[in-house]
């Protein structure tokens, strides 16, 4: 899982001048909570992972990584739609995405809006009332 994170994030982190293979793996392993993590399986093979972490006022979608060979084929949208449908009764959803990452378009298609940013991350929220899980691939 830590290796997949490194592979998926490398292009964006290199673009931002922040890729360090040891740090990428260490940050994942330091934050990894097995009970909150799901493995994404496509055609019987492990293809990615995603974690859902509930907090008092919102639910975080974290560590959403999909094998690059499957990106752009609707898999990420289907996974995100399923997560949003499962958590429809919970508070707003939050996540962060790297500045300039193509993944931001996926989140925006599902109704997420940017509410804060720094030089590395864009923080996004799906407001409580916006549970329409649109998939436009």
Notes on the protein architecture:
The chain is an alpha+beta fold and 137 residues long. Helices cover 32% and strands 30% of the residues. It contains four helices and six strands. A six-stranded mixed sheet has the order 1-2-3-4-6-5, sandwiched between helices. Helix 1 (2-15) crosses helix 2. The two termini are 26 Å apart. Mean pLDDT is 88; it is low at 131-137.
Brief write-up:
The protein is α+β, with helices and mostly antiparallel strands.
Key words describing this protein structure:
about 140 residues, alpha+beta, six-stranded mixed sheet, 6 strands, disordered C terminus
How many helices in DSSP terms?
4
Distance between the termini: 26 Å
Helix/strand order, N-terminal first: HHEEEHEHEE
Beta strand count: 6
Instruction: Tell me, briefly, the overall form.
Output: globular
**Percent range for helical residues?**
25-40%
Query: Measured on Cα atoms, how large is the radius of gyration?
Result: 14 Å
Q: Mean pLDDT score, rounded?
A: 88
Taking pLDDT < 50 over at least 5 consecutive residues as the criterion, the unreliable ranges are 131-137
Main β-sheet description: 6 strands, mixed
SS-based class? alpha+beta
Strand content: 25-35%
Order of adjacent strands in the largest pleated sheet: 1-2-3-4-6-5
List the SSEs and their pairings:
Elements: H1 2-15, H2 21-31, E1 37-42, E2 45-54, E3 59-66, H3 75-86, E4 93-98, H4 103-109, E5 113-117, E6 121-126
Parallel strand pairs: 3-4
Antiparallel strand pairs: 1-2, 2-3, 4-6, 5-6
Helix pairs in contact: 1-2
